[in-house]
Amino acid sequence: MVKIAAKRGLELRCKGWRQEGLLRLLENVMENAENQDELIVYGALGKSARNWPSYRSIVAALKTMNEDETLIVQSGKPIGVIRTHVNAPLVLMANGNIVGQWASSDHFYELERKELICWGGLTAGDWQYIGSQGVIQGTYEIFQTIARMHFDSNLKGRFILTAGLGGMGGSQPLAGVMAGAAILCVDVNEAHIDKRIESGYLQKKTNCLDEALEWIRQAVELEKSVSVGLLGNAAEVYPEILDRGLVPDIVSDQTAAHDLVYGYVPIGYSMTGVAEARANNPKQLEKDSGESIAKEVRAMLAFKEKGSIVFDNGNNIRTQASKYGVKDAFQIDIFTEAFLRPLFARAIGPFRWIALSGDPDNIRKIDRFILKEFADNQIVTNWIHLANQYVPFQGLPARIGWLGHGERTRLALAVNQMVRNGELTGPVAFTRDHLDAGAMTHPNIMTEKMKDGSDAITDWPLLNAMMNCSSMADLVAIHSGGGGYTGYMQSAGVTLVADGTEDADARLKCTLDNDTTLGILRYADAGYEESLDEVEKKKIRRIDTEALKEENRNA
Ligand code: NAD
After folding, report:
1. What stretch of H or E contains 147?
2. Where does the pLDDT of residue 500 fall: very low under 50, low under 70, confident under 90, or very high at 90 and above?
3. Distance, CA 414 to ligand 1 centroid (Å)?
4. Rounded mean pLDDT, 470-474
5. Stretch 322-331: mean pLDDT, rounded?
6. Given this model, what pLDDT does residue 547 score?
7. pLDDT per position as a tens digit, 412-463
C-alpha cells in the first residue's frame, strides 16, 4: 500500500487553507502512525478514521467542501456535509461515546467488531497527534517537578526506571535525558525500540538486563545522562531489578496498560503469540494481562516502600492492578494530581503549533519569537531552548509549549500576523492536548482527587466543546474512552488554522481565550487558589454562587 504522508508546500488541493490545513493534519497523524495499515496512530487502538473507506471519504469531503459547510464525523466515519456558515467549525466530531450503563470494554469491542464505533485516543481521531513530542514537555515537567521536590532540583546521577516505548511512551527516554538522568525503558516489542532509536528519541538498546544496568550504573556514577531501551517484559524486569536489591530514584510505566487485550503484553507471550491471542482467545489474554500488571504494580509498590518516587503516567495501570487484586495500587500517585495540577489550575497546559507548509524554519522563527517576547516565562523559554537542542521533528514540523491564558492567544495572533506579512512561508495550525485544564474528565488520571470531589463530572469537557464551537474553532471533537478506557473518561479537542487572514485573527482570539477561560473557571469552581488568583489577575468574569449563598445566609 502507498504510504501516506502529509503534503508539503503551498499548493492547495482544497477550496481554502482551513480545509487544506485540516487535511494535512489528518495526513500527518497517518505519517506518524504506529501502524498506518490499520489506521492506528498510537495508544494501542487509537485510530485516525474508522476504516479505509471512511478515511478516503473524509479526504474527498475535505477536498470539495466550501467554507460555509461542516463535515460531521461519528467515530471516525464521515456521515455528511451540512450547510452552516463561514464562522462555524469545518469539522465536528464525536468519537467513542457510549452511554454510562453500556460503557464497558466488552461492549466497546463488540461495537468495534461490527465497525459501528472506534476509539480516537485523544489526538488520533481528531488529527492532532504530532508524534512522541506531543507529551514530551509534560513528561519533562514531571521529572523537573520531582527533581525540585525530592532531589535538590537536579536529576544528574539519578536512575529512572520506566516501560513502554510506543507512540507516546516513546517520549520518556528523551525527556529523561533532557532532565539529565539515566533512564532505562523496557519494551517487549523490538520494532518499537528501533523506531525510537531511528527517530532520535532513544540512544542505546540491548536485550540483556545485565548490560542495561551496567550502562545505567556507569552513567549514574559519572552523572551523565543516558537512555537505554531494554527488550523485555516489564512485569518480569521490574521484580528482577527489585530482587537484585536495586532501588531506582524514580519509577513509572507507560505501556498501553489501559487496554488488556490490544495494549499490554503479558508475561510469556511473544509478539506473534499476542497477535494470535487477540484474534482467537481475547478473554484468556485479558486475564493474563491483568495478572502480569498486578505483578508489575506490586514491584512498583515495593520500590515505593524502599524510597523510589513512583507515579502512574496516565495509562490506568493502577486501575487494572486493583481489579486484579492489588488493593493498595492507589497508593501510587497519579502524575496530574501529584505534579501538574498547579499548572492546570492556571490553565497552563500542552499547547501545540504545526507548520502546515512543512517548512521547519517556520517553527524555528516562532521559537525565536517566543524566546524574545515571552522572556519572563521561564517554563516556556527553558523548554524552547531544550526542544531546539534535543527534539527532532516527526512529520510536519511542530512544537509543543506549555502556555496559559492570554499567552496562547498572544502567540497565535502574532503567528497569524507573521503568516500575513510573509515572515512565515505558510499557514500554521494551533491545537492542544485533550489533557488540558477544562477539557478532560478522567477520575483516575486528570481529575483524580479534585478538591471538591467533582472528579467524575463530565459537564466540563462537554461545555468546553460547545463553547469552542460557539467561539468559531475550525475543528471541535468530543471524545470518550474506548478499549480499556471505556467508561473512564470524556474529553474535548479543538484545532484552528492561522492562515494569515483577519477572520483567522477573530477565530483564534475568541477560541483560545475562551478555551483557557473555561479551564480556569473549572478549577476555580473546585476551589483551587491558583485559579481564583488567575480570575482576579486576568479579570475573568466568574459568577460566584457560593459567595451569594453566604450573603443570603447572612441577610
Ligand atoms: P502504544 O500502544 O503506542 O505503545 C505501548 C508500548 O507498550 C508498546 O511499545 C508495547 O510494546 C509496550 N508494552 C506493552 N506491554 C508491555 C510489557 N508488559 N512490558 C514492556 N512493554 C510493553 O501506546 P502509547 O501511545 O505509547 O501510550 C501508552 C500509554 O500512555 C497508554 O495507556 C496511553 O493512554 C497513555 N498516555 C498517557 C499520556 C499522558 O499524558 N500521560 C498521554 C498519552 C498517552
Report:
1. helix 136-150
2. very high
3. 36
4. 98
5. 98
6. 80
7. 999 999 999 999 999 999 999 999 999 999 999 999 999 999 999 999 999 9
Q: Which amino acid does the sequence have at 293?
A: I
* Closest approach atom of ligand 1 to CA 237: 19
**The dihedral sign for the CA sequence 391, 394, 397, 402:** negative
Residue with CA nearest ligand 1 atom 43? 168
pLDDT at 391 over 90: yes
Counting Cα atoms < 13 Å in the Cβ hemisphere of 262 gives 19
**Can you read off the three cell numbers belonging to residue 91?**
469539522
Contacts of 254 (CB under 8 A, 6+ apart): 162, 163, 164, 166, 168, 169, 172, 313, 314, 315
- Among 142, 187, 270, the mutation site with the greatest number of ligand 1 atoms within 8 A of its Cβ is 187
| pLDDT, tens digit, 9 for 90 and up, residues 269-316 | 999 999 999 999 999 999 999 999 999 999 999 999 999 999 999 999
What average pLDDT does the segment 97-120 reach? 96
- Binding site, by residue number, is 167-169, 187, 233-234, 254-258, 264-265, 483
| Residue 380: predicted pLDDT | 96
Asked if 288 and 295 count as a contact pair (C-beta separation under 8 A), the reply is: no
What b/e readout covers 426-460, taking b as 16+ CB neighbours within 10 angstroms?
A: bbbbbbbbbbbbbbbbbbbbbbbebeeebbebbeb
Domain boundaries, the chain: 17-31+49-119+345-537, 133-341
User: d(Cα 522, Cα 540) in Å, to the nearest integer?
Assistant: 12
pTM of model > 0.90: yes
- The CATH code for residues 17-31+49-119+345-537 is 3.40.1770.10
Q: What is the pLDDT of residue 410?
A: 98
Distance 510 CA to ligand 1 centre (A): 35
Backbone angles phi, psi at 162, to 5 degrees: -150, 180
Which residue intervals of 186-316 are DSSP H helices?
190-198, 209-222, 234-243, 271-280, 282-305
Angle, helices 459-470 vs 502-525, to 10°: value is 160
User: What would the mean pLDDT of 399-404 be, rounded to a whole number?
Assistant: 97
133-341 folds as Rossmann fold (3.40.50)
pLDDT of residue 124: 98
| Ligand 1, CB within 6 Å, residue ranges | 34, 42-44, 135, 138, 163-169, 186-189, 192, 233-235, 254-258, 263-265, 313-315, 435
| CA 197 / ligand 1 centre spacing (Å) | 17
Nearest alpha-carbon partner for 360 in 426, 432, 405 = 426
